[in-house]
Amino acid sequence: MLTVIMTEQRKTAVIIGAGPAGLTAALQLLRDTGVRPVVVEASAEIGGISRTVDFNGYRMDIGGHRFFSKSDWVMDWWQEILPLERTGSAGGGRVTISYRNRQRDVEVPAAGAPAHADPGQVMLVRNRLSRIYFRRRFFDYPIKLNLRTVANLGMVRCVKAGASYAWSSFFPRRHERTLEDFLVNRFGGELYRTFFKSYTEKVWGVACTEISADWGAQRIKGLSLTSAVLNALRRSVAPAPASTRGTQTSLAEFFLYPRLGPGQLWEAVAERVRRGGGEIRLRHAVERIDVTEGRVTGVGVRDAATGAVSTLAADYVISTMPVKDLVAGFDPPAPADVARIARELPYRDFITVGVIVDRVRGGAAPEAMLPDNWIYIQEPDVRLGRLQIFNNWSPALVPDATKVWLGLEYFCAEGDELWRLSDADMQALAVRELAQIGLVDPAAVVAATVIRVPKAYPAYFGAYAQFDTVRAYVDAIPNLFLIGRNGMHRYNNQDHSMLTAKAAVDNIAAGRLDKRNIWDVNVDDAYHESDD
Question: Residue-wise over 110-128: b if at least 16 C-beta within 10 A, else e?
Answer without folding.
Answer: eeeeeeeeeeebbbbbbeb
